[in-house]
Write a structure and sequence with these properties.
7-stranded mixed sheet; mainly beta; 11-stranded antiparallel sheet
């Protein structure tokens, strides 16, 4: 998410932005499929990122454009050994999508470029008018004990270094901020670089466009498991994909949300 200044993340929050798809009121198949992308086996010289979804915060139920939605704040964090760096490119401006290469930092210096199945597209819905890494995150609601979500919402993001992460839970040392924008306003560009440095996070607050789950057709009141997953399609190479999801157990009514637990 593009912001004008870097700040310290003093409390745990969570991540995401631009909606690419919504499934409402039906039992939908889960889309998270870590490791499904054709990644190479990580080598001893690779300094891989470790994307983690920080605990969600700022939960609230609101009416938005005639729809009842659950809103919350989210942050994608990198607590890995190396930066997440994505380079999108296209050969012609007539092509709306950019293909994406992940540049993996090497311990001896330099980097290796690894093709991915990811794409970047130019987004205007969040009023930022910049390039987003599609399927950066997914939000979903499911009934505890059920395998598949009742509602799922995919998001795309402009990934940047926006907040310094507190602590050093993975032994990481925060690097200097390197990523601060996604070619805002440059619809004709043929190349975009975005990412998240080690020890940094990219937050999306509850009031950002697309930062919600539509509750239309969902039985209320009810108890649900709210899940947020970074890189739900497993498009990127990481040190660990088992920590990409955060969950929150919530009691939902037509007008309010109460956090019952941090795991479900």
């Amino acid at each position: 998410m593009l912001r004008t200044s870097h700040v310290l993340l003093a409390t745990a929050t969570t991540v995401a932005t631009v909606a690419t798809g919504v499934m409402l009121g039906v039992v939908a198949p889960a889309t998270a499929d870590h490791g499904s992308a054709p990644h190479r086996v990580a080598g001893p010289e690779d300094r891989l990122p470790d994307l983690q979804m920080e605990p969600l915060s700022d939960h609230r139920v609101q009416i938005l454009e005639g729809r009842r939605v659950l809103r919350f704040t989210a942050v994608i964090a990198n607590r890995g050994d190396g930066p997440l760096e994505l380079v999108g490119s296209r050969t012609s401006t007539a092509t709306e999508e950019m293909s994406v290469v992940q540049r993996i930092s090497q311990r001896g210096g330099g980097h290796e470029s690894v093709p991915t199945d990811a794409v970047m597209t130019y987004a205007v819905d969040d009023n930022h008018s910049h390039w987003h890494f599609q399927h950066a995150a997914e939000y979903s609601l499911r009934v505890p004990g059920e395998e598949h979500p009742r509602v799922a919402h995919k998001e795309g993001f402009c990934l940047i270094d926006d907040v310094r992460l507190p602590g050093a839970s993975s032994g990481e040392t925060a690097e200097s901020a390197e990523y601060d924008g996604c070619e805002e306003g440059l619809t004709e560009t043929r190349s975009v670089t975005q990412g998240i440095s080690v020890g940094w996070g990219d937050p999306y607050t509850f009031d950002v466009w697309g930062q919600w789950i539509d509750l239309t057709g969902l039985p209320l009141p009810g108890r649900y498991c709210l899940e947020a997953t970074a890189d739900p399609r497993g498009l990127l190479a990481e040190t660990d994909t088992g920590n990409n999801t955060t969950t929150t157990l919530v009691d939902l009514t037509a007008n309010d949300v109460k956090v019952v637990g941090t795991e479900c």
